[in-house]
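User: I'm preparing a small set of examples for a lab meeting where we compare how different chains pack in three dimensions. I only have the primary sequence for this one, and I'd like the structure in token form so I can line it up with the others. Please keep the answer compact; I'll paste it straight into my notes.
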Amino acid sequence: MSTVAITGAGSGLGRALALKYAKNDYKVFLLGRDDTKLHLVQKEIQQKGGHAEVILCDVQEPASVSIAFQQIGELDVFINNAGVGIFGPLEDYTSEDIDKTLNTNVKGAILTVQSALPLIRKNSGRILTIISTAGLRGKVHESIYSASKFAVKGLTESLQKEWKDDPIAITAVYMGGMNTPFWDKSSHVEDPSVLKGPEGVAEQIFNEDDGRSEIVIDQ
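Assistant: Understood. Below is the structure token output for the 219-residue chain.
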């Protein structure tokens, strides 16, 4: 049975990806900070005959990330999905807002890829980084979020070059907004219901997860 580890697996796209991969005979490692949400996803998967394990992990903390990946014996796919978005005019951002965004989206991406790499390399596997179209172009009231996603784009493209002779693949996933709880605390998107749902996005990601350099989600 193939295996996949997904950060931010308790809700939104992470949950949808977990359900999709589990439906297709992957054992899923559910990584995140919210034990309750993760166990609800695990229960959904198990009720449908799938296999899932919950692993608590704060991607901002090196020790937490290291301990989490030590619990994974075999890994074929790692999906670097955990992320936060705080939106508004630049002058309204606090130092805490900036730290939370960069530590989760950038530092978290680096730490988790570092820890996943030995497992992925062992199985000639794949890494997918969820970047967002905010990593392709700046957007109003998304200055810090966009900066973090440009950084993850740079990380991903650099590793594609660094690992060009390695038997592993790293894929950049570019997507716009989705109808998920990501927007619950923001007035930036007036009507999230018009956005594509996480199930449709997860479907496209799974179908195109073949080691290509990038996946662009159609809107």
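A couple of notes for your slides: The helical segments are 12-23, 35-47, 62-70, 95-122, 143-162, 198-208. The longest strand covers residues 26-32.

User: Perfect, thanks.
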